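Next up, a chain.

===
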Amino acid sequence: MKSKKIKVFLISSFLVLAVAIAFVSLWNWYYDLERLPKGEVISESVSPDGKFTIKAMNSDAGATTSLAILCELQYNDGSKPNKIIYFQNKVEKATIIWESNDIVSINGVKLNVPDDVYDYRKKE
């Protein structure tokens, strides 16, 4: 009787763990900005001190999705890899305005580069 309870407990624990791992993996995959399809560069802007360049690109994931904009931050000295810092759907252009060497406004969303990231799917 005890071995049956242990077996049920182990199987249940394994299933719960497998579901949890699958959930976390899918969640991370869905929200990974680096997986977004990059299209043509529609505009770019260099920071006032020349340290960063932001490239705005169309992102079209296919016929069932609306056009989106993503912006990639580039370190001009090549010290770090590029990273996506902005993703917004249902827009076709990006207005990039540098307010200082490390504060940029993209379509009205202020970001402190290189740390801040905007993803419309994670609105709070």
Notes: The two ends are 50 Å apart (CA to CA). Strands lie at 41-46, 52-59, 68-75, 83-89, 96-98, 103-106, 109-112, 118-119.
